[in-house]
Amino acid sequence: MPDFAPRYFRIEQALRARIAQSQPHDPLPSEPELAREHGVSRMTARAAVTQLVNDGLAYRAPGRGTFVAAPTGPRRADHLVRLSAEIRKQGRRPSSRVVSAELRPATAAEAARLRLRKPEVITISRVRLADDEPIALERAVYPGTLSALLDADLTGSVHEALVVLGRTPVRGSATLTAQSASEEDARELDVPVGSALLVEERLILDLEQRPVELSESRYAGSRYRLDVAFGVEPH
């Protein structure tokens, strides 16, 4: 991984690989151990562990340490979690099938939402799978300056490829709707035409608060759901 990838991300990826080979409740290295092993500050090591805790892959036990979390249910709608990590949390194997990937002129809406100076975008369309079962049809748009994405392994994590290119996704906003499956949806997701889909449109920002991804994910309604945490406003 190139040197400009954030140090905490390097530790996070090493821990993700370890967790994938571990059993629930297995211990993970302590933050001081991670700091020594990777030559970073304890604060940097803590940032990596905190990300895994937030993603539900690990949990802290006060006075005892950090441990591998047991697989849980669907992700919460207010958390930015890579779908591949979410699928692994459920004890399943993630993969992707690339439908198309190209550099093309941006639409006016894409140029505005991604704040583009040069009106070109990279578009990547993929089917996301869990244990070879189609879960989502994902169409994502990126600034044309990230043309190196076309040389990346698009069957893996595009977000990890973005980090390698110096654009770490950190936060975003989403709109959720319910739609009926089109003929293309039905073909790619192996569902009946007209069946229910959960559609999530997302705009994701990087560490410098620059738009880095505009995407639409069309989930097979019978295979995916989101949990929502909310408060109740007093009257």
Protein topology:
Blueprint: H1 7-20, H2 31-38, H3 42-54, E1 58-61, E2 65-68, H4 83-89, E3 94-105, H5 108-113, E4 120-130, E5 133-143, H6 158-164, E6 169-180, H7 183-189, E7 196-206, E8 211-220
Antiparallel strand pairs: 1-2, 3-4, 4-5, 5-8, 6-7, 7-8
What would the keywords be for this entry?
single chain; 235 residues; alpha+beta; Arc Repressor Mutant, subunit A; Chorismate lyase; 2 domains; six-stranded antiparallel beta sheet; two-stranded antiparallel sheet; 7 helices; 8 strands; 26% helix; globular
Question: What does this protein look like?
Answer:
By secondary structure, the chain is α+β, with helices and mostly antiparallel strands. It has two domains: 62 residues, Orthogonal Bundle (Arc Repressor Mutant, subunit A); 138 residues, Chorismate lyase, CATH 3.40.1410.10. The chain has seven helices and eight strands. The strands form two sheets. The chain has a six-stranded antiparallel beta sheet. The chain has a two-stranded antiparallel sheet with strand order 1-2. A hairpin with a 3-residue loop joins strand 1 and strand 2.
